[in-house]
Amino acid sequence: MVEKKLLTLAGAVGILACGSCFLPPLPQRNPPPPPVRMGLSGIRSIRVEVANSSPTHHLDPASLAQKIADAINEQSWRTKVSAYAGKEADGGDAVLAITVLSETVEAAPLEKNVRLIFLIHDSARLTKADGIQMWWELAAGNSIQRDVVDENVADVWKEPGLADSVSRGLSKRLVFRLLNGH
Questions:
Q1: What does the pLDDT look like over 106-119, one tens digit per residue?
Q2: In what order do the strands lie in the sheet with 82-85?
Q3: Which of 49, 72, 162, 176 ranks highest by number of CB atoms within 10 Å?
Q4: pLDDT in tens, 120-149
Q5: Structural domain boundaries of the chain?
Q6: Distance (Å, rounded) from C-alpha 153 to C-alpha 58?
Q7: Can you give the pTM of this predicted structure?
Q8: Does the domain formed by 41-180 have CATH 3.10.310.10?
């Protein structure tokens, strides 16, 4: 019986000596900080205005403005901010003015089709009704990829639905940066 008690005591001392008591403390792992959110204080509605000053004018400004407003409205459940498109409309607590600066396409051949990389550069500015600029970005580059069958890059903008798809991709990227402070 004494042997079992001594064996148990030796085991406990061994565990404490080799394990839990003499190891260096484990490193503290702090969770990553939450993403920086843009303060939209005082803004309940945003009027979206789009101008296309690129030499090619492939993206329709009215269509792009509507897609950006739709992308903002998709997030309204968490931001409590709504958006609408149009330069002529009055009202709104803020104006989001976007200018498309350039629209270029690069082609990368694949096995059965062509991957097109649309490079859209734009400038954007969110200004409150009292003139305070809440957010802006100058000459932001957006790379949007689409796979198409047609190899003629010059006529790719004429493909049905392609400009609409590029506008949707651009609007989602721009709204993400706007709402997340990037």
A1: 877 777 777 788 88
A2: 82-85, 45-52, 94-109, 114-128, 133-148
A3: 72
A4: 989 999 999 888 888 888 888 888 887 776
A5: 41-180
A6: 13
A7: 0.73
A8: no
